[in-house]
Write a structure and sequence with these properties.
Elements: H1 2-14, H2 18-40, H3 50-62, H4 72-96, E1 105-106, E2 116-117, H5 118-131, H6 133-144, H7 149-156, H8 160-179
Antiparallel strand pairs: 1-2
Family: Belongs to the sigma-70 factor family. ECF subfamily.
Pfam families: Sigma70_ECF
Organism: Erythrobacter litoralis (strain HTCC2594)
């Protein structure tokens, strides 16, 4: 019943109910903490806490006017994208700090994946988005949101076999892009 109540809160949020928005975020906060914790686990030299990442992400989500959130999975996908942006911004800020020259890594909960250099991964994702935005979104949901194939299927409206195939394509493309980064300069 709690899941159904959360879904209704999210629908009400989408219709402008700020009380429903606050209650939905409160209900989903433990899940956001799990996602953030997974993102931050074993990062090299990270000064960002799970609490900081979740709060920064929620703050950015609250600034979105009329977010189109179709349910819990859509919210998790949105939170995943926002957490990615927060982590990338944090990594960029660290890289400009002359006293620290640590690369920031992303450790996924996906077996056989990661850790990845976050700056290199973000660069590859920007390139992938230019080629196929839907593939980039799958990577974002899987890596940054820790979403399962069925959850990605729910958000995208695709069948699970389609998500699996597209996920394989995205992983293969990313592996190549990560091993052949673009030269800057």
């Amino acid at each position: 019943m709690l899941a159904k109540d959360t879904e209704m809160l999210i629908v009400d949020w989408g219709m402008g109910d700020t009380t429903a928005r606050d209650r939905a975020i409160a209900r989903l906060y433990p899940e956001l903490q799990q996602i953030a914790s997974a993102r931050l686990r074993r990062e090299v030299g990270s000064s960002m806490s799970t609490h900081d990442l979740v709060n920064d992400a929620v703050e950015k989500i609250l600034r979105i006017e009329n977010p189109e959130i179709g349910g819990r999975s859509h919210f998790v996908a949105l939170a995943s994208r926002v957490m990615r942006n927060v982590l990338v911004d944090h990594a960029r800020a660290k890289s400009t700090d002359k006293r620290h020259h640590h690369k920031v890594e992303l450790n996924t909960r996906i077996q056989g994946e990661g850790p990845f250099d976050l700056a290199r991964l973000n660069s590859a994702l920007v390139r992938l988005e230019a080629i196929d935005a839907e593939l980039m979104e799958i990577v974002e949901m899987r890596y940054f949101g820790g979403m399962t194939v069925p959850e990605v299927a729910e958000v995208t409206g695709w069948s699970e076999p389609t998500v699996k195939r597209r996920w394989q394509v995205a992983r293969a493309w990313l592996a190549d892009a990560m091993s052949h980064p673009l030269a800057h300069g």
